[in-house]
Amino acid sequence: MSSIAIHTLRESDQRRWTYGSNYVDGALRLFSVSSLLSCGDARISLSEWREVDWNEKSEAFPSYVAISHSWTPSAEVTRISQNANRQLDIEIGQDSPHTISWHGLQQAALAAQHLKYELLWLDFICLNQTSASDKKLQVQQMGYLYEKAAAVIIMPGGVSAAQAIELEAPWITRAWTLQGATLCPKTYVLGLDGRPKITDEMHWSASSMSPGWFPPIDQVDGELGIMEIRDLFHSTYANIRITKFKKDTNEPIDTIQWTVNCLGRGPALSALGAILLAESPAMRQAGIWRSIWSRTSKYPQDMVFSIMHLLDVHLEVDYNRNMGDLIVELARKTSALPSWLDIGHDLPFSP
User: Fold this and answer.
1) Phi and psi at residue 273, to the nearest 5°
2) In degrees to the nearest 10, what's the CA dihedral of 164, 170, 175, 180?
3) Residue 149: CB partners within 8 Å, gap ≥ 6?
4) Distance between CA 342 and CA 101 in Å, rounded?
5) Which residues, other chains included, contact 35 with Cβ-Cβ below 8 Å and sequence gap of 6+?
6) S-S: 121 plus which of 66, 208, 267, 312, CB 3.0-4.6 Å?
7) What is the Cβ-side half-sphere exposure of residue 184, based on CA atoms within 13 angstroms?
8) pLDDT tens digits for the chain (351 residues)?
9) What is the SS3 assignment for the chain?
10) Cα–Cα distances in Å, from 145 out to 3, 121, 140, 151?
11) Rounded CA gap, 212 and 204, in Å?
C-alpha cells in the first residue's frame, strides 16, 4: 500500500497549518516522526493513503500511533506551551485559527519513536478542519482509525504539551476521547512523573491501601514517560501518602497526599473503567452507554457518533438529525443486548 506526499510545513516557516487542493476526501493521512524530530529543522511531513480498506489485515497496512487529546488545553498545558513559545496555528475555517504547539507534537513524536513507530495520526493535522465533506467521511471511520492504530498515545491536558499526571485535565470529559482510550490494546498515557525527586539530602517512601499504587513508567526522555492506561486507571483510586526523609538521619521531613488526577473523576471515569475492565459484553456495553451522559461535545450528535463503533453499529453521519432520534436508532440496533437499561445510579438526571 503506497502513500503520496501531499504537504510539508516547517516550524521555521511560521505559517498556519492549512490544506491545499491535492488531497482526497476521507483518505488516511499520517505524518512523519523523524521529520518532526529533525534537529534544527522540525517539520510536519504529511502523506496520504488513498482507497484504504479498513478490513485489510495485510502487513502493507501502515503502522502508526494515534494521538488522543482534548481540544481545550488544561491550565498547566497552556502554561507550559506558552513558556516553550513554539506556537502552531491550525486553520479550522473560522475567524481565528486554533493554536497548538510544536513542543507538544515533538513530545508525542518522541514517545512514538520510543515505541519504534515512524508515523503519527492527529486530528488537527490529518483531517481537513475546513472541509465538511472530508470531516464527514473521517468521522464515519474514526473508530477504525483508533482500532487499526499500532498504539494510541493519550495527552490528557491537550496536544500542546505533556503535563504531570497528578494534575487535572479535561480529556475524560470529551466525547471522542472514549474511542481513543478503549479501541486499541496498546494504549498509553503520555505524562510527566511528578513524584518528589530524590536528592543528595532527601529521599522518600510511599504507602497506599492499594497494591501497585503507582503505575510502571516507561521513561521516554527525562521526566517524560508513558504509562499503560489500565495501570494508570488503577492508580487513580489509590490512597497514596508520600513521606520525605533526610538521607543522613532518616528523620521524616514532611508527609503529603499524592493522587493521579489526569484521567479525571466521577461518572465518566467509572464508565471508562467499566469498559476497560469489563468481564462480559454486557458490562462493557453498559459502560459505553453511560458515557453518553457523562461526557460532552460541541455537537450533541457526536455523543452518539463517538460510541457507535464501540457498539459495532453503523449510523450515517448526519448532523441534521437530532440527538434523541440517533439514540433511539442506536438503542434499536443494540436491542439484542439492551445495556442501555443498566447505565448506573450515579449519573446526573437527564430527561
Assistant:
1) -65, -35
2) -10
3) 64, 65, 66, 121, 184
4) 41
5) 8, 42, 43, 44, 45
6) 66
7) 29
8) 689 999 999 999 999 999 999 999 999 999 999 999 999 899 999 999 998 888 776 667 899 999 999 999 999 999 999 999 999 999 998 778 999 999 999 999 999 999 999 999 999 999 999 999 999 999 999 999 999 999 999 999 999 999 999 899 999 999 999 999 999 999 999 999 877 666 666 666 666 655 555 678 899 999 999 999 998 888 887 667 777 788 788 888 877 777 888 999 888 998 999 999 999 888 899 899 988 888 999 899 999 999 999 999 999 999 999 988 998 899 889 887 777 666 655 555 554
9) CCCEEEEEEEHHHCCCECCCCCCCCCCEEEEEHHHHCCCCCCEEEEEEECCCCCCCCCCCCCCCEEEEECCCCCHHHHHHHHHHCCEEEECCCCCCCEEEEHHHHHHHHHHHHHCCCCEEECHHHHCCCCCHHHHHHHHHCHHHHHHCCCEEEEECCCCCCCCECCCCCCHHHECCHHHHHHCCCCEEEEEECCCCCCCCCEEEEEEECCCCCCCCCEEEECCEEEEEHHHHHHHCCCCEEEEEEECCCCCEEEEEEECCCCCCCCHHHHHHHHHHCCCCHHHHHHHHHHHHHHCECCCCCHHHHCCCCCCCCCCCCCCCCCHHHHHHHHHHHCCCCCHHHCCCCCCCCCC
10) 16, 9, 10, 11
11) 17
pTM of the model: 0.90
Dig out the grid coordinates for 186 from the structure.
496498546
Amino acid in the structure at residue 25:
D
Q: What is the pLDDT of residue 60?
A: 72
234 grid coordinates: 488503577
Distances (CA, A) of 260 to 45, 182, 213: 35, 19, 10
* Cell 459484553 sits on residue: 281
If you count them, how many residues does the chain have?
351
